[in-house]
Structures are given as structure tokens and as C-alpha cells.
UniProtKB/TrEMBL annotation, chain A:
UniProt record, GO biological process: endoplasmic reticulum to Golgi vesicle-mediated transport
Name of the protein: Protein YIPF
Keyword vocabulary terms for this entry: Membrane, Transmembrane, Transmembrane helix
Lineage top rank: taxon: Eukaryota
Domain spans labelled Yip1: 44-197
Location(s), subcellular: Golgi apparatus membrane; Membrane
PANTHER family attached to this UniProt entry: GOLGI MEMBRANE PROTEIN YIP1, PROTEIN YIPF6
Membrane topology: Multi-pass membrane protein
Stretch forming the signal peptide: none
UniProtKB/TrEMBL annotation, chain B:
Residue intervals passing through the bilayer: 74-95, 115-138, 150-171, 177-199, 211-233
Compositionally biased spans, kind Low complexity: 12-24
GO function terms (MF aspect): small GTPase binding
Protein name per the record: Protein YIPF
Its membrane topology: Multi-pass membrane protein
Species of origin: Daphnia pulex (Water flea)
Amino acid sequence: MDSIPSISKPINGEGKPEFNTLDEPIRLTIVRDLKAVGNKFFHVLYPRQQTSLLTEWDLWGPLILCTFMALLLQGRSDSTDHDGGPEFAEVFVIVWVGAMAVTINTKLLGGTISFFQSVCVLGYCLLPLSIALALCRIVLLLQQNTLFFVLRCGFSLTAFFWAVWAAIKFLGDSSPPRRKILAGYPIGLFYFVIAWLVVSLSNS
Amino acid sequence: MMPKLYCNSKDQTQGSTQTAQSSQDNGPSMLTFAYYQRYFDVDTPQVKERLIWSFVPRPSRDTLTHYIRPSPDLYGPLWICVTLVFCVAIMGNIADYLHSGGEGQHWRYDFRKVSISASTIFSYALLLPLVLWLLLWWRRKEGDQAPLGFIEIVSLYGYSLAIYIPISVLLTIPFPFIQWTLVIVGAALSGSVLVFSLWPPLSASQRGIAVIILSAVLAFHFLLAAGLQLYFFRYSNDVVIVSNSGGTSHGHLRAVDSSTLDKVTELQPLSLIRAVEDYSPPDTTNAETTVAKTTTIGVDFPATAIINNTKTEQEIIKSIHIKNTTSDFAPNQTISKLLTKKLEESTTVA
């Protein structure tokens, strides 16, 4: 009897969700969700074990990252002629439609991952690119020359490789064995386009 | 997994050749996921093979029959087109940046370029196969061999665009001779693969019409390559100042930068306006910005100058070619120096 896990007892803490969370204070809910998001960020930065991002997916992290990047990337709207930077909504479209397209591609190739799990992983792996974007923004505050441009390129490139590596690590097992490159290429293209957006950020 | 069937996508007329499908005559319906999964049923070695044979023409074993026909896929065409769209847009921006002398951070992501390149490439990859398929279907009167499926033609066209991706990277080299060589070589290689693949089904009946159709296919292929090169990678940095001979004593200087009609480097006309404004005497200058990228600036010329003298007008047009840079200082000095010189000359000539 001791070996059978008791299912009638409510399980507290991490793991199984409680279903009477309406009674708890909001602070507790928010802190728990923030901890989950922070935990996933940590796993993106140091991808070791693969399970936590996939099994308990959530889309808060991707939303936060996407909003942050869209805020920093948008071009100036006060000038009458088109500044050239993407609008706020355009960044959203690129990120979410791109993640959806990559996910649908993986599923069409015979992948065994669910739709939202894949979108979750792709969104969370934007974290290195967000960090690079913030660093580029700081670098742009200084007077520009070729060295700083190379530095920005370096940030962006490092973030691109990091993001692709993390995403492949999480999503790699879910595609069929002889199609790993076919499933991985659109991921690389997706992060490449976003890295390009980061590099082409300018002060004008 | 789906068994590999030696059939094409025209399920309506080929229902008898399907063996392991369900009792429905179409297999899985178009609304289910499994219908589209059938067209992504390729492995990495197969895709690599199809990519290589998409631009290496081999008359004896054409790409369509030997590499694509067993299982036509949409993975290749889709991701090749998406890659080409972004590649062309990004390389166009890079070429723009290099062309402007590598100055500063005026290097932007141009969404308009992406949407233009996307519409061009996707319509080429979808509309031309549709037209070809309709042509073949219409001409299929006698009971000749199995006609080409739509997905097969889309597949063939999609893979044939693959060579344009490295070509678009190389097109950033700013020498027109190299650009045209690349365009011609690339279009010739992949166009010949197209021709060799399409020749057997087309030439079954009338050869004359087949030759016409195939030369149209080749022509469109060249047109796409040339169009991409001209639109995204051709820079004419001439500023043509045209004077309007209206017969009045007011001349109008209109600075038209033809290159900015295609690109989004709007810094150029703005700095140009500022430069001409700086030059012109303040009481006779009114600068107004009209439609998108042309600016009309009215300047009072002395009546003896350019207005009715077309020869001088030609001289002025020919002689004022200002190299556009995007920095803030060079255009001012260059333009105002040149303008001073030319307007002085014009007053003495007439």
C-alpha cells in the first residue's frame, strides 16, 4: 500500500497542478508562474535536460520576449517617410507566424511533438537574441564606427548560434531519424531572420 | 506511414492506380493533416539529391522522371522559395549598404522589399506551374501517356529556383558584367534542367507547340533572374536635375533620384533637398515635398539662363551627376559646389 502513490491526497509544490488555486492569494499564483518562466529561461541558457520545457509548456516567456524585442526593434513613427525599421506588429507577425510555420513543417515531416510544445520551445529560445538586442541597443548609444558594427554583428551571430543550438537540443529528438536536417533547417532560417533584424537595428 | 505510390497528385483521374488507399476515391480528404503530410514524405538524402540535380542538366536522365516523380514533395519548393525571398531581400540590403560606402548605420530591414520579393517568387513558383498544368491538361486529348501532376510541376519549378540562392549572394558584387554573367549562367543551368524534364511529356504530340511552350518556360526563367537582379541589385546613383522649360522666368529644379524609387534610402532626397536649399537664395526658394520621392524646388533663374535653351538644358542634365552617399556632409558640399559651377556657366552661356 505504501508503494501505490496516493491520488486522493492533494499534491503541493511543483509537479502536479492543484485545482483549487482560486483560493490562494494572487501573489502566490504570480510567483509560481514567474518561477516557471524563470526556470525555463535558465534551461534555455544552459540546456542540459530536455524535459521541463517540453512537458510543462507555457507561452508567457515567448510573449514577454516577443514584446520586448518588438519594442526595441520598431522604427521611429514620428517621421513621415518610412524609417525602414519594422513596426511593432511586424515583429510579432514574424515571430509568431514563423514559429507556427516551423512547427507545422516539423509535424508534416512526421514529428512527434505537439504544436504548442514546439511553439513554446521556439519562443523561449529567443532569449539569447533578446539579450543580444539589448546589448546592441546599448552599443548604439555610443558614437558609431566600424568596430562597433563588427561588435554588434558578433553579438548577433553568437546569439544566433546559441539559439539554434538550444532549439535543436530541445526539438532534436522529436523529428524522424533521417529527417533531422530537414526539420532543423527552418529553425535555423527563423533565427537567422530574427538575428538579421537585430543587426539591422539603427539609430536613425 | 504512407506507402510510396507510383502515382501523381491528380487523384480524380487516377483513382484506379491507388492501391493501398482507403475506400474514398481521394485518399485522405484535403481538410485533414494527412493529406498534406503525403507531400512532405522525403528524407534528407532525397532532398540533397534533388537539389543537386536541379541545376545540373543531364539529357539522358532528366530530373523529373528520375528524382522527383516517385514522390513529389512540397518541402523543397516551400523552403527554397522562403529562403530565396529572405536571401534576396537581405542581400539587396547588404548591396545597398556596401554601395553607400559602408557609412554608418543606415542599413535597415526593408519590409517592403521582403513583400515584393515574396510576391514575385511565390507567384512564379505557383502560377507558372498552374498555367503549364492547365496547358497540358487542355492538350491531353488523345490517350497518351500519364500527364504530369500539378504537384510534380510545382516541385520541379521549386527545386529549379535553388541555384538562385547562391547567385543572389554573389550578386552583391557591384560589377554589372559579373552580375549579368551570373544571371545568365544560373538561368541557363536551371532552365535547361526544366526543359529536359518537360520535353518528354510535351513532345508526345505536336513538336512545334512543345518548342514554343518550352521556349516560353525558358524565357520566364530568364526574366525572373534578370528581374531580381535589376530590381534588387542595380544601383544608378545619378541625380538628374531636370529643368523645366516652361517659358516663364521661373525655372524649377527637380531633383529626381531614380534609384530611390526602388529603394528605401529616403535619406538621399532629404539631404538633397537640404543641400539645394542651402545653396539657393532664401527669398526665392520654396521647397515643397510632393509625392513620395521627388521634390520640386522652385528657384528663380536669371531669365537669360536655361529656360528656353534646350542645349544648355542638356548640358546641365548631363553634367550634374552627383554621387549619392548617405552621410550628412558630403552631399551638401558636392551638390552646392556643382550647382554653383553649373549655374554660373549657364548664366554665361545663354
